[in-house]
Amino acid sequence: MEFREVVRHRRMVHRFERRPVPAEILERILDVGRRGPTAGYAQGVEFLVLDEPATVAAFWELTDDPRFPMEPDEIADAPPVLVMPIPDRERYLARYSEDDKAPFGLQVADAWPVPFWDTDAAMAAMLMLLAAVDEGLGGWFFGIAYGEEAMLRRFGVPDGMRPIGVVGLGYGLPEEEPTGSGVRRPRRPLDDMLHRNAW
Q1: Of 46, 117, 122, 195, which has the maximum CB count within 10 A?
Q2: What is the mean pLDDT of the chain?
Q3: Which of helix, strand or coil describes residue 39?
Q4: Helix, strand or coil for residue 40?
């Protein structure tokens, strides 16, 4: 698929078929994700991949908010693969402590005007969403609003590290109709968003 078509077809898919994603397809998507920009070539984004039914079920059990519980059909139609891009801030700080980067003064997290570890993880997530479209899969990026600490403990994520969100992957249900804000609200015209040479 041409790149512009991949971008045009990218949308958040919320309902998935129960069939698994073949390992070779998942590997290709993850490989694309790891090729995103990375500050100082620190390569500090880790991927926690849940692709077995038991681990995926454990994720939903731990993160299901009792105030807004998931309906049984939502769980049944959930993506069969969950990928969490997890930035390792310490890898960036170590990289910027090396001789060629030390003059920038970014050896401590507070010195960074923007935490590029999070930015790099977000770029990896976007690349995976685009790669999913190119592979004929649906993708869904969502946040973890409940139970994150328990989930991180359950899957052995090192202390001080947390995902920027979750990329759900799988074969979208063919009958799924697009829902959400993107259906109700028009996309802003490009001219409304551009500020050439000044605001």
Answers
A1: 117
A2: 94
A3: helix
A4: helix
